[in-house]
Amino acid sequence: MMETILIIEDDSSMMRGLKDNFAFAGYNVLTAMDGEKGLDAALNATPDLIILDIMLPKINGYEICRLVRKENLDMPIIMLTAKGEESDIILGLNLGADDYVTKPFSIKELLARVAAFLRRRKHTANEIFKFGDFHFDIGARKLSKNGNEIELSPKEYKLLEFFLKKQGKALTRDEILNAVWGYNSFTGHRSVDRFVTTLRNKIEPDADNPVFIHTLREIGYKFLD
Are 168 and 187 in contact, with CB atoms under 8 Å apart? Predict the structure, then answer.
């Protein structure tokens, strides 16, 4: 089945170039040139991946990202930004974006990133993990305990997914940063520790004496069941 890419971009020349290249690469391409139409397409057409500009008329890219994740839609979101400031990038990632590219960028690199995200999504779509009394369904993007759903932020979701896929392995903070925040992230080790703390508060019987997420002194963490 042909995969669908939604491109939300208000620059007509850039939109034309992106649309032509992704169509040539074999994707079904949906487009929107303002945030309002883009949000509607994201929520109702449920594309396989979204390429999202930040500076958009009507609704900006940050708000679109936030609202898409609020609806528990888990398609990858790659943000396009003319801004290179650390705070702007971190804001987008914390709102649930999976990656970002700074304009101007290589279309070949963007095509490669999109293909990689879609490959990973296919691979993980049907994975289900069980630990303790918890049930973690990657395809449904849902964590539940004894049938009761537990709400996770986008980053908590990615962090738990990474821990579960690496059960029993000693993970450095840099490994966690790269897997959850991305190789280009400006986020530091303190953010990893902070999100581990919030995740422990949601899954550990006693967050001060964890049974799942163990701290490895001067190294990082290890997930055990």
Answer: no
Given pLDDT bands bounded at 50, 70 and 90, which one contains residue 175? confident
Looking at residue 92, its pLDDT comes to 81
6-36 pLDDT tens trace: 999 999 999 999 999 999 999 999 999 999 9
Q: Which of 125, 159, 175 is the last residue of a domain?
A: 125
Pairing mode of beta strands 99-102, 134-137: unpaired
Q: Which of 125, 147, 177 is the last residue of a domain?
A: 125
Q: Are residues 116 and 31 located together in one domain of the fold?
A: yes
Overall residue count recorded for the chain in this entry: 225
| Same domain for 115 and 29 | yes
Q: Does 140 share its domain with 165? A: yes
Instruction: Say whether the peptide bond before residue 104 is cis (omega within 30 degrees of 0).
Output: yes
Query: If you average pLDDT over residues 131-149, what whole number do you get?
Result: 89
Q: Sign of the CA dihedral 60, 62, 67, 72? A: positive
Q: pLDDT tier at 198 (50, 70, 90 boundaries)?
A: very high
| Residue 179 token pair | 């897997």
Structure-token pair, residue 175: 């490994």
Which residues span the domain enclosing 102? 4-125
Model confidence, pTM: 0.61
Residues sharing a CB contact under 8 Å with residue 56, sequence separation 6 or more, in sequence order: 8, 9, 10, 34, 35, 38, 64
